[in-house]
Design a protein that fits this description.
Number of domains: 1
Helix content: 25-40%
Number of strands: 11
CATH superfamily: 4'-phosphopantetheinyl transferase domain
Number of helices: 6
């Protein structure tokens, strides 16, 4: 069980579509959506709810309770066989679901100022990125998603110091590699996605757009 789903919030921005999906959300998700004031944040929260609903129903899970452990990483209560992780950036929300522990991060291409680069990337990582050349913003955005996916895999968020996570930057289809975990990079238009997992099978998984899939 390895799946990735994505939603573009523009697909749910119409009032009728928004209300249709909002009505299908759990009371907990509705409360979370309502807690946001900016409409974009409401849409991203609703998109996360849609993704979770879609991913779990695909696995035959229609009734569930979400609990948080550690630094707030969500799990399904009573299910040690299903793991999921959510992320959002810009106008996209994404979920990875697996039967193994999982972390995922999505980031829209951003410009990394020199000061920020030095705060979150090690000298070795900076040298390797500069050696690769090309669009530095894409490379740094991708590298940041890799670090974020590791933080989310362990459920520690930014309590894990980014400079303490040093990655080997390689050329090829998979830009990043660590001995303990697979870091699988994917690109969707101007977004970078990294999945952190112990399962190499995610390399072959296509990202499914919830509102464009057939069937």
């Amino acid at each position: 069980m390895n799946r990735i789903y994505i939603v573009d919030i523009n697909c749910i921005s119409d009032n009728n579509v928004y209300e249709y999906w909002y009505d299908q959300m759990s009371p907990e998700r509705k409360k979370k959506i309502d807690s946001f004031k900016p409409q974009k944040n409401k849409l991203l929260s609703l998109a996360a709810g849609i993704l979770l609903k879609k991913a779990l129903e695909t696995e035959g899970i229609y009734s569930y309770e979400i609990i948080e452990k550690g630094a707030g990483k969500p799990y399904i209560k009573g299910r040690s066989d299903v793991f999921f992780n959510l992320s959002h950036s810009g106008e996209r929300a994404i979920i990875a679901v697996s039967d193994n522990e999982i972390g995922i991060d999505i980031q829209k291409k951003s410009h990394f100022e020199p000061g920020l680069v030095k705060r979150v990337f090690t000298e070795s990582e900076i040298m390797q990125v500069e050696h690769l050349g090309g669009d530095m913003d894409i490379l740094y955005t991708a590298l940041w998603t890799a670090k974020e996916s590791i933080m989310k895999y362990y459920g520690k968020g930014l309590s894990m110091e980014p400079l303490n996570i040093e990655l080997d930057v390689r050329s090829g289809s998979d830009l990043f590699y660590t001995k303990e975990l697979y870091l699988i990079r994917k690109e969707i238009s101007d977004y970078q996605v990294t999945i952190c997992t112990t399962c190499a099978g995610f390399k072959e998984i296509l990202i499914t757009d919830v509102f464009k899939e057939k069937g």
